[in-house]
Amino acid sequence: MGEKIAMGFHTCVDYELAWDTAVVEEQIRAYGIRSGELEVKTEADSERMLWIECLAHLKAGVGGEIVPASPEICEDFAEKFRYRITLGGTATRAAIALDRMGYHSVLQTSCYNQYVERLMPAGIRVLPGVDRDHCRVYPHVVLQCQAGVRIHAGDIDFTTPRENRILITRDLDSLNIPVLDQAFGELLTDAEVFLLGCFSEIVDRDVLCDRVEKTKKLLSHLPKDAIVVMEDGCYVKKDFRYYVHRELASRTDVLSMNEDELQEYIGERIDLLDPDKVREALEKVRQKSGIPTILVHSAVWAVAYGEKAALMRRALEGGVTMAATRFRVGDALSPEEYARTQAMEPQARSAAFCARLAQELGNRVLCVPCKDLSGVKNPTVVGLGDAFAGGLLPGLLKQNREIS
């Protein structure tokens, strides 16, 4: 008991694929995939369709989540590549990042297996969301690719426009994500900040409604002044996203999303360095979601907009620094590497954008520029949003709210 930082519920086993252009081009030829078939969706009923989905995302420079028809499709796809096994899920990666910085937390997981038992740091108090004999592994396959990679096979010929990652999974634990409202609620009495991972993988409305009702009961155990941050996601069932926001808005202080999730929410791609477009997008999300503060983290800036924006400078700076550190050094995150990142200069164009946005919106907005990472030779592009969430949370503890 006594942890100030709490989070739930998503935990998964990630297969982080090592990119191999030759493998990708070989599969394009093997499946006879044509350029005209490339269309961004979020489902796949065969491995061929999964390759089409991935190629469409890579060509568009858009990250996302794809839920194939079976776990076996995910496993067969992964076996085409070399990969390493890590723990994933926003709440879990955030907790691991915090542990490396010396912060303890309490976490309810959505699964429990040999990898959770072996890889979870001792500084995280874990409440398994399932029985310990419920140990089947449903891999979350992470396909990551650098910018400027040419993919050329058959009539397909494009160069990836940006660093990108695509999540591929049919995880039955995540599809039925557990919420232990009473058992976990009893561990939250001292929490000052709660990170609520999204329900983006749930595809059954009855399951979603049940979990949302349990989440309401869970959040009632928090102290009244605890800050709740809901991490958004690219929902498989798009209307589920708005249902979750609407139902949990009364106890959610901050809705946090990345640039892809923002643009999916408003239904258009925008110039992230156009203050007017960004302002309009932030206001649209705030009004539609009913959540008082909207936080968006992108490759160029992190912005808080709304009621609690003025309290969030340390939180945003922490999120930006933690994500940039992961981008630089991957799992070699440490206080020393964090401090090196902290001392880095911001992107000049990002700093100029933040100054203009602050001039237009005053104390309704707080904008922090991202670091200039142009010199990083071998960046990590998976888990950046999770690292941002981890870096964000210490800045929302009471002592840092008061100082901000």
Write up what this structure looks like.
The protein is an alpha/beta fold and 404 residues long. It folds into two domains: 282 residues, 3-Layer(aba) Sandwich (UDP-N-acetylmuramoyl-L-alanine:D-glutamate ligase), CATH 3.40.1190.20; 109 residues, Adenosine kinase, small domain (2-Layer Sandwich). It is 40% helix and 20% strand. The protein is built from 16 helices and 17 strands. Helix 10 crosses helix 11 and helix 12 crosses helix 13.
Quick summary of this structure?
With about 400 residues, this protein is α/β, with parallel strands linked by helices. It has helices at about 20-30, 45-60, 70-80, 90-100, 115-120, 170-175, 180-185, 205-220, 240-250, 260-265, 275-290, 315-330, 335-340, 350-360, 385-390, 400-404; strands spanning about 5-10, 10-15, 45, 65-70, 85-90, 105-110, 125, 140-145, 150-155, 155-160, 165-170, 195, 225-230, 255-260, 295, 300-305, 365-370.
